[in-house]
Amino acid sequence: MLIIRPEPLTAEAFKPFGDVIETADRDFFMINNGSTQRFHRLARVMLGQAGDSGIISIFRAQQIPMPLEVKMLERHPQGSQAFVPLKQNPFLVLVAPAGETPDPAAIRAFITDGTQGVNYHTGVWHHPVLSCVEEDDFLVVDREGEGNNCDEHFFADDTQILLQTP
Ligand SMILES: NC(=O)N[C@@H](O)C(=O)O
Ligand code: NI
After folding, report:
1. Do residues 37 and 30 touch, judged by C-beta distance below 8 A?
2. Strands (DSSP E) along the chain, which ranges?
3. Whose CA is nearest to atom 2 of ligand 1?
4. pLDDT digits (tens, 9 = 90+) for 110-139
5. What angle do CA 101, 57, 23 make, to 5 degrees?
6. Closest residue by Cα to residue 66 from 164, 161, 147
7. Which spans are transmembrane here (predicted)?
8. Rounded CA gap, 8 and 114, in Å?
């Protein structure tokens, strides 16, 4: 059985999978006559084809019991997907590099600090949102357009992966 334990989310560690959306130690410039700091372009919305839209939604996620037997990961082949917590709760991020299918040996788990969001780049394998509290709200920015934008990969029954939280 492959046991995966989350590591603290950092921009550097998450680079192979996408962007961390945060203000800590990030550059900003002043706008609004000096009353507002703009932390500019922390991530880009990736789209797949002409006519696609970047859309903003709210996901109200119920907590999934831990430890989690990881049965599947998904990817969005035509766009990025960003999750920004609306209630300052940490959440779990489970990812694997983009590719034809997710490599169990390359799966990484991260725990956010409550202020951080993530932007999965196009095609990056990830588990559907994993709330760390009974119910949590996330602002989600992703792609809407023609064609399929969600591939699910279910691991074989003999591939046992366990996400173990502290
Ligand atoms: N399916 C859907 O919109 N949500 C997932 O993509 C997810 O990453 O939670
Ligand atoms: Ni997704």
Report:
1. yes
2. 2-4, 7-8, 18-21, 29-31, 36-38, 53-62, 68-69, 72-75, 81-85, 91-96, 108-111, 117-120, 125-126, 130-131, 135-144, 151-154, 161-163
3. 128
4. 999 999 999 999 999 999 999 999 999 999
5. 85
6. 164
7. none
8. 11
Question: In which residue are the tokens 């969600």 written?
Answer: 150
Burial class of residue 109 (count of CB atoms within 10 Å of its CB; 0-12, 13-18, 19+): buried
Longest dimension (CA), the chain: 60
Distance 16 CA to ligand 2 centre (A): 16
Residue with tokens 């709760």: 89
pLDDT tens digit string along 31-42?
A: 999 999 999 999
pLDDT score, position 90: 98
Is the shortest distance between the CB of 129 and ligand 1 below 6 Å? yes
Q: Measured in angstroms, how far is the CA atom of residue 39 from the centroid of ligand 1? A: 26
Tell me the domains of the chain and their CATH numbers: 2-163 (2.60.120.480)
Q: From the CB of 61, is ligand 1 less than 6 Å away?
A: no
- Alpha-carbon span 48 to 53, nearest angstrom: 9
